[in-house]
Amino acid sequence: MNRLLDAYRTSIGKKFVVAVTGVILFLFVLGHMFGNLQIFVGAERLNAYAAFLQNLGELLWAVRTFLFLALVLHVMAITQLFFQNLGARPIKYRVKKTRETDLSARTMIYSGPAILAFLIYHLLHFTYGSVHSDFIHGDVYHNVISGFAIWWVSGIYILANILLGLHFKHGLWSWFQTLGFAHPKYNKWRTNFATFFAYLIIVGNVSMPVAVLAGWIQ
Amino acid sequence: MKLKLNIWRQKNREDRGEFVTYHLDDVNSHMSFLEMLDVLNQQLIEKGEQPVAFEHDCREGICGACGLVINGYPHGPEEGTTTCQLHMRHFKDGDEITIEPWRSKAFPVVKDLVVDRSSLDRLMQHGGFVSIRTGSAEDANNTLIPKEKSDLAMDAAECIGCGACVASCPNGAAMLFVSAKVSHFALLPQGQPERKRRAIQMVQAMQDEGFGACTNYRECEAVCPKRISINFIGMLNREFIKASVLSGAEKGGKYRSK
User: Fold this and answer.
1) CA atoms A111, A114, A120, A126: torsion sign
2) Is the ipTM above a cut-off of 0.85?
3) How far is B137 from chain A (nearest CA, A)?
4) N or C: lower Cβ tally within 10 Å for chain B?
């Protein structure tokens, strides 16, 4: 145990935690998206899926606890790294340019807290229904349709999911690097993998509010 | 060519420092960047002013002593080159050039553009070495090393320890430097005895010296005068995780099942 704590004290140890928890959270987002896409099949299918999840009982809470712990560790480790990095350059450059850093890498520290804030809103909106104006417990299909019918609610979801995709674009690429899976043989594949899943998350999740706003599903 | 130079001037470690603007009128495009500063210093000396302090030694791109942040890029706008190998033909007549020292908590400014990089030396003391047999020299090729391995080790060993990776990193991380040293030795048979200890201790020392953490921006690779690849950072992460988390205790007597 001491060895693990010693490892965590270093930046690579913290990054290891960020990477592993990041992958767990990514897999959840991916599964969550495929589950929700059943909305295109119809109300019965989506509500049956929701009922199935609710009936998992203890298993549901075990998974929720696991994901919550992953989220806490992810945020905790990255917060510690953020403050370490903040202190590493007390005097800034007058002129500093970058060659490689792309938008997704540069915005990680903004997209992260924004996604966390969205997550809280999302739970209050569709899980507890306390910020939903027309919430019917158990009728997920109705809640989604009536929720997304409000244009600015859909706007928040669209924006948040674009940020989420952007976060994954850098995160998924970095995941391989941090866990040591970096090799010239499959580095290109690594970039394609990250880009593909980033866009998949954006397209999949944004399709739902857009479909409601456009009246494709009612 | 004529140049306008904004140069960081700082009397000593305690001084707050400020940018001072100088104008140079007759810069030859064949000069190296350091020779251009030599010309400026000669003029300052003749005027009775303090010359600009900057570090330099070999002036042929292999010692790692020189290093300035030129218009926002460590070692200047040309890729894969050191400041001493940067020539004035890459600038235009009338250019404004801002020259700053490496900025890092681990590299305090000593004077003007000179920083104290002994933090990198201390990292080396934590494992950037191999144990060797003393006495008469071994026969050549006594230790067999596969060609690909020695080539790859040489790619890492190209690091000249200039610190541009730290200077360019938005987080002030020393990961590229440490990864080059750890990878260099991990690839060679001579580096095996200290392999695990080296990875753990150098990474821990990096923390103690106040360097930042890597966030995979890839800026280090982009400015490295020796073009050290960030694949070595992947290798360092692998080495560190293997040594600190995955491998068992190997102290004598503790490797029992019960």
Assistant:
1) negative
2) yes
3) 36
4) C
